[in-house]
Amino acid sequence: MKAMVLAAGLGIRLRPLTESVPKPLLPLGPYPLLVWNLLLLRRHGVEHVMINLHYLGEQIRHTLGDGSQWRMRLSYSDEPALLGTGGGIKRVEEFFDDGPFLVLNGDTIADFDVSQLVAYHRNKEALATMVLRDDPDVERWGVIETDGDDRVLRIQGKGCTSQEKDVAPCRRMFAGIHVLDPFMLRHVPPGIFSSIIDAYVWWLERGAMVAGYVFSGYWSDVGTPERYAQIQRDVETGILNVPE
Question: Distance of CA 26 to CAs 39, 62, 105, 209, Å?
Fold first, then answer.
């Protein structure tokens, strides 16, 4: 299985830390943030990864190279203009022509079983599987509604209009990690900015099977200086283990 790590963002909320360093290269323990995701993927047999680049992208390419130092193969997609999560993935659609693939945010750190996620996706025979989490502040992240079998119904109120009577949907947040079938990209417009969430909503409105994989282990998006400082403390205290 192949994977894509999204690393083209501007890191605006982390300035001034990101004024001269792209957010995915901010240090965390012995590695940059993005390398934590690469090592997680490698641990579960993913050896070929696509990384999209925009802001200070050459720093990422120079630091990671061809991936051989991580015993992986890395490919890059340069985005002169930001294409968003939808357009960025669509741009490298041919890279994923051999089956389902993983997508991770380059600034999100999670300690989870990638192999179990992939097996779950295949068992569900889903078009896509979203990694979901319970969170008391779910409204802040954007609500993902699922039924009792963890099938995704709606994303921020958009999607499937029917559901079982008298059964309240579960409300969770999206962890920014998912497995996609290449067919998912069929209706993503090429060459323009878009969110992959738009594609999700399009398919949900037409009854496609989108599974939710509920995850309760360590997870953090490194979006603010406060969250970055917290994840650094988590590494120092052993709450988050350095990947091998």
Answer: 16, 14, 14, 37
Domains of the chain: 2-236 (3.90.550.10)
Question: For 193-207, what is the mean pLDDT?
Answer: 93
Q: Structure tokens of 8?
A: 């083209």
Q: For residue 3, count CB atoms less than 10 angstroms from its CB and return exposed for 0-12, middle for 13-18, buried for 19 or more.
A: buried
pTM of the entire predicted model: 0.90
The answer to whether residues 101 and 46 touch, using CB atoms and an 8 Å cutoff, is no
Q: Answer with the residue of higher pLDDT: 177 or 19.
A: 177
With beta carbons less than 8 A apart as the criterion, state whether 191 and 79 touch: no
Q: What is the pLDDT of residues 108-124, one digit of tens each?
A: 899 889 999 999 999 99
73 vs 240: CA distance, rounded Å: 26
